C-alpha cells in the first residue's frame, strides 16, 4: 500500500493563514509530497484586512498602516507588486493625519487651544510612553524624564517593589507629578469659559490616553501591562498606508495557490485531536500513530461535513480562541491543555472600530472642497462632569480626533475603542449622524458671549473664525466597522494585559501535543500549530506580526519533514 501524503489544513485565510499557505505551496517539492487546504469561515479572504470604498475614496475597514517600512515584509510585498501608487485617492495618502502640526486642538464648547497650551502635555505624554518602551536615555536637567522615572518608582512602591504595573496607573502618576512640578492649582483661564488650566491639561492628556486605547485595543489602560511595553517592537522608518489597499497584499499571497485550495464558507465547529495516543512500535505504520490511513486531527464544520488532517495550523483570532476555551464551547475536543488555555485567558483582546463620515455641502455648491474642516483633536470634559455638553453622547467622549482622510477629502475618520466601539456597532446610522453632528457643533461653534443672544455662534475652522454658512457642510452618510460582534473575529487585536506577559505570547505559539522533557508520549507530532498576530511576542497586534507567525509555522512543518525552509 502506498502511504498517503501528509495533509495540512490551515484554518483562516487572513494574513497568517495565507502566508503559511504561500510558503508551504511554493517550497521545493511540496506539491508532490503533501496535500494542502485552507478553510475560511467567511465569504472572503483577508480576515482582519478588508479594503473597501466610501465617498469615492479607497478606505480600510481593518488593518490600515504598514507600521514602519524598514524590515517590513508587508512593505516589501507592496513594493514588488507596485501597490504603493494609485490614481484613485486612498486613506491617509498624504500623511497629513500623522502630522501633529496639522491638528487643531479644540476644547468642548468651541475653545481653540494654542500650541503653548498643548505642547507641554503632549511632550509629557510622549516622554512617559518613550520611557515605558525603553527608548529614553536620561539627559541632565530633563524634568520630563525625571517625572517619568518618579512615576514608575511610585507605581512599583505601591506594589511592594514588585513590577506589576499598568500603563494607565503609571501615566496618571506621571500627570500628578507634572502638576506638582508646575505647582498647578485650580486657577481659571480668561477666555476659556468654565475650563481651568488643570481641567484643560487633564482633557488634553485624556485625548492622548484615548489615542493609546485605539493603538492597543485596551478598553481601559489600567488593564494594559507596563512591562510588555519595552518588549513590543515596531519596524523602523516611516509608517504608511497602501495605495492599492491592504487587500492587494492578501491577493498577492493567494495568487500562487491553485483554484479550490482556499475554501470559503467553511466554518469550523470543532477540532478533534489526539493528545495522548500511545501505540506499540509495531503499530506505528507511517509515524502517525496508526495505520497508513490514519490521520490524527478531524475538523467538524458547521454544515455537518468533516475533514481529516495530519497537521492543522489554527490562525483564528484570540477573540475566537477565548470563546473557544470555555467549557461549554467544545471548539477543541479534548480541551486544550491548561498552559494554553491560561495563556489565552490572561492575554488581552479588545475592540477597535473605525467610523467614516461623508460630508456634503449644506447648499448647492458645485466644486465645493472641504479644506475648511480641520484636522480636529477634541478635548472633552469628563463624562461625569457637570460642565459637559449634555447632548454630546457618551460614546463620543473618548474619541480623540476627527479628521479628513487626506487633504480636502469629503470623508472624515474617527477611531473608537472598548465599550464605545461596541456601542457604535449597535447604533442606527441616524443616531450616529445625530451624535456626531452634535459633537461637531459643540467643538466648532464658539459662543459669542453677547448678552441676550446666547444662541449666536461662530465657527472655528483651522484656527480661523468664519460663519456657519461659510463652513457649510453636514454629515450625510456613515460607514462603521463591526469587529466586536463579528463571530469570526470577536474583536480587533491583542494586547498584553496586566497579569499576563510576553511568555504567554510564546505559549500561544507552542504546537500541540506539547513535547515533554521525558518524551514518553508517541502521539502524532505537530497536530495543532498556532499562528496569528497574538502568537508573536514582539510584533503582536500587527499584520507583519501575523505574517512572521505564518512563516514560522510553515517553516516548522517544512523542517519537520526535512524540507528546505527559510
Structure report:
The protein has 566 residues and is an alpha/beta fold. The protein has 15 helices and 23 strands. The chain has 3 domains: 7-68 and 242-276 and 295-349 and 494-561, FAD/NAD(P)-binding domain; 84-96 and 351-451 and 460-480, no CATH class; 115-231, no CATH class. It has helices spanning 15-26, 30-33, 73-80, 115-132, 143-158, 167-182, 197-216, 247-254, 318-324, 338-346, 418-426, 429-444, 468-471, 502-509, 543-560, and strands at residues 7-11, 35-40, 51-54, 57-60, 103-107, 111-112, 262-264, 268-272, 297-301, 306-309, 311-314, 332-333, 348-350, 352-361, 375-379, 401-404, 411-417, 445-447, 457-461, 464-466, 473-480, 493-495, 528-530. It is globular.
Binned, the helix content reads: 25-40%
How is the CATH topology of the largest domain named? FAD/NAD(P)-binding domain
Distance between the first and last residues' Cα = 33 Å
CATH superfamily of the largest domain: FAD/NAD(P)-binding domain
Identify low-pLDDT runs. Answer: 278-293, 447-471
Tally of distinct domains: 3
CATH class of the largest domain: Alpha Beta
- Main β sheet profile: 7 strands, mixed
Describe what is shown at a glance.
The chain has helices spanning 15-26, 30-33, 73-80, 115-132, 143-158, 167-182, 197-216, 247-254, 318-324, 338-346, 418-426, 429-444, 468-471, 502-509, 543-560, and strands at 7-11, 35-40, 51-54, 57-60, 103-107, 111-112, 262-264, 268-272, 297-301, 306-309, 311-314, 332-333, 348-350, 352-361, 375-379, 401-404, 411-417, 445-447, 457-461, 464-466, 473-480, 493-495, 528-530.
Amino acid at each position: 500500500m502506498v502511504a498517503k501524503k501528509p495533509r495540512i489544513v490551515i484554518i483562516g485565510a487572513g494574513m497568517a493563514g495565507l502566508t503559511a499557505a504561500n510558503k508551504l505551496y511554493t517550497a521545493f517539492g511540496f506539491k508532490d509530497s503533501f496535500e494542502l487546504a485552507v478553510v475560511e469561515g467567511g465569504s472572503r479572504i483577508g480576515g482582519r484586512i478588508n479594503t473597501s470604498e466610501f465617498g469615492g475614496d479607497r478606505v480600510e475597514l481593518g488593518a490600515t498602516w504598514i507600521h514602519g517600512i524598514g524590515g517590513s515584509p508587508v512593505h516589501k510585498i507592496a513594493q514588488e507588486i507596485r501597490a504603493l501608487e494609485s490614481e484613485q485617492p486612498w486613506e491617509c495618502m498624504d500623511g497629513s493625519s500623522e502630522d501633529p502640526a496639522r491638528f487643531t486642538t479644540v476644547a468642548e464648547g468651541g475653545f481653540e487651544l494654542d500650541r503653548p497650551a498643548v505642547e507641554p502635555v503632549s511632550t509629557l505624554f510622549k516622554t512617559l510612553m518613550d520611557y515605558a518602551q525603553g527608548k529614553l536615555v536620561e539627559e541632565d536637567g530633563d524634568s520630563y524624564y525625571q517625572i517619568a522615572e518618579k512615576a514608575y518608582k511610585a507605581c512599583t512602591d505601591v506594589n511592594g517593589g514588585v513590577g506589576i504595573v499598568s500603563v494607565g496607573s503609571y501615566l496618571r502618576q506621571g500627570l500628578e507629578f507634572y502638576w506638582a512640578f508646575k505647582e498647578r492649582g485650580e486657577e481659571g483661564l480668561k477666555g476659556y469659559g468654565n475650563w481651568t488650566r488643570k481641567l484643560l491639561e487633564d482633557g488634553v492628556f485624556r485625548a492622548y490616553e484615548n489615542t493609546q486605547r485605539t493603538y492597543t485595543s485596551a478598553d481601559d489602560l489600567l488593564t494594559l501591562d507596563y512591562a510588555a511595553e519595552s518588549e513590543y517592537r515596531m519596524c523602523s522608518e516611516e509608517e504608511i498606508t497602501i495605495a492599492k489597499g491592504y487587500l492587494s497584499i492578501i491577493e498577492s499571497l493567494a495568487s500562487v495557490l491553485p483554484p479550490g485550495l482556499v475554501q470559503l464558507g467553511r466554518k469550523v465547529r470543532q477540532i478533534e485531536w489526539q493528545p495522548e495516543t500511545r501505540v506499540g512500535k509495531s503499530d506505528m505504520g507511517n509515524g502517525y500513530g496508526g495505520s497508513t490511513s490514519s490521520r490524527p486531527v478531524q475538523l467538524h464544520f458547521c454544515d455537518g461535513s468533516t475533514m481529516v488532517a495530519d497537521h492543522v495550523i489554527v490562525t483564528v483570532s484570540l477573540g475566537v480562541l477565548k470563546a473557544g476555551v470555555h467549557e461549554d464551547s467544545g471548539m477543541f475536543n479534548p480541551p486544550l491543555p491548561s498552559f494554553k488555555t491560561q495563556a489565552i485567558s490572561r492575554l488581552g483582546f479588545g475592540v477597535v472600530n473605525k467610523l467614516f463620515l461623508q460630508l456634503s455641502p449644506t447648499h448647492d455648491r458645485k466644486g465645493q472642497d472641504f479644506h475648511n474642516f480641520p484636522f480636529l483633536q477634541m478635548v472633552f470634559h469628563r463624562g461625569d462632569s457637570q460642565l459637559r455638553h449634555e447632548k454630546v453622547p457618551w460614546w463620543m467622549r473618548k474619541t480623540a480626533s476627527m479628521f479628513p482622510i487626506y487633504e480636502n477629502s469629503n470623508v472624515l475618520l474617527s477611531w473608537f475603542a472598548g465599550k464605545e466601539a461596541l456601542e457604535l456597532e449597535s447604533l442606527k446610522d441616524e443616531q450616529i449622524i445625530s451624535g456626531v453632528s452634535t459633537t461637531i457643533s459643540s467643538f466648532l461653534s464658539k459662543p459669542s458671549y453677547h448678552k441676550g443672544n446666547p444662541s449666536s455662534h461662530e465657527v472655528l475652522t483651522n484656527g480661523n473664525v468664519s460663519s456657519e454658512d461659510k463652513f457649510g457642510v453636514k454629515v450625510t452618510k456613515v460607514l462603521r466597522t463591526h469587529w466586536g460582534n463579528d463571530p469570526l473575529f470577536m474583536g480587533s487585536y491583542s494586547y498584553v494585559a496586566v497579569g499576563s506577559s510576553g511568555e504567554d505570547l510564546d505559549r500561544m505559539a507552542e504546537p500541540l501535543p506539547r513535547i515533554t522533557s521525558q518524551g514518553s508520549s508517541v502521539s502524532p507530532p505537530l497536530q495543532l500549530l498556532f499562528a496569528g498576530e497574538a502568537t508573536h511576542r514582539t510584533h503582536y497586534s500587527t499584520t507583519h506580526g501575523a505574517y512572521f507567525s505564518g512563516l514560522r509555522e510553515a517553516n516548522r512543518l517544512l523542517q519537520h519533514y526535512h524540507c528546505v525552509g527559510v
